[in-house]
Amino acid sequence: MTVLITMISCNLRKEDNFTDNDNIDVIDLKNDKSLLVKKDYYGTYSFSNWNDFNISNIRLHEIESLDFNTSITRMNLLSESILGMDESIPDWLKTNKALKEIKEIEEKFSILVDQRYSSTTKIRKNWKNLSNEFDDLREELKETVEENQS
User: Fold this and answer.
1) Which of 2, 17, 107, 134 has the fewest CB atoms in 10 Å of its CB?
2) pLDDT tens digits for range 59-107
3) Phi and psi dihedrals of 101, rounded to 5?
4) Which residues contact 111 (CB under 8 A, 6 or more apart)?
5) In the prediction, which pLDDT does 111 show?
6) Are 83 and 61 in contact (CB under 8 A)?
7) Residues of 32-67 as b/e, b for ≥16 C-beta within 10 angstroms?
8) Of residues 45 and 9, which shows the higher confidence score?
9) Predicted confidence (pLDDT) per residue in 8-40, tens digit
10) What is the distance between the alpha carbons of residues 139 and 148, in angstroms, rounded to a whole number?
11) Contacts of 36 (CB under 8 A, 6+ apart)
């Protein structure tokens, strides 16, 4: 009996730790499995099974904090992760709106790359456009996470 009570109390404490932490959410997937998602340093979600998004997200936050004063090298580093997001998105996050946002991000990124040697004003505008599209994706993902929370 004591062992049973100890096991139950341990499980309750684990669940309480997650529910009390604003940076971690428990997601119930359709196949009776649960998944933990956490917020990163910037307060946006990070997904253990979607590295292309995580890398793009962090790099864009870093660039935004530099007021879009960044090098072509950073742009090249961002290329692979942005262009891989649509193929690597987990099924439970794959909504029509999220896929549409990813396509728009790819388009804005393509414009940025094509005009990378333009005037500073144009480059900053293109970075801002890309950032705004990424914000829309972040918002869509946040809504999807909230809809699937336990």
Assistant:
1) 2
2) 888 887 775 666 667 788 889 899 999 999 999 999 999 999 999 999 9
3) -65, -40
4) 126, 129
5) 95
6) no
7) eeebebebeeeebbbbeebebbbbbbbbbbebbeee
8) 45
9) 434 444 444 445 667 666 676 776 677 778 887
10) 14
11) 18, 24, 25, 26, 27, 48
Q: Which two tokens stand for residue 64?
A: 């935004």
- H or E segment and range at residue 88: helix 72-88
Residue in the block written with tokens 């956490």: 38
Per-residue model confidence (pLDDT) at position 47: 86
Please state, as a whole number, how many other Cβ atoms lie within 10 Å of the Cβ of residue 75: 20
Q: 99, 96, 89: which is closest to 50 by C-alpha?
A: 89
* Cα–Cα separations (whole angstroms), residue 136 to 10, 57, 100, 105, 127: 39, 12, 10, 9, 14
Phi, psi at 131, each rounded to 5°:
-60, -40
Distance separating alpha carbons of residues 144 and 150, to the nearest angstrom:
12
Burial (Cβ within 10 Å: 0-12, 13-18, ≥19) of residue 95: middle
pLDDT of res. 105: 97
Average pLDDT of 119-125? Answer: 87
72 and 116 Cβ atoms separated by less than 8 Å = yes
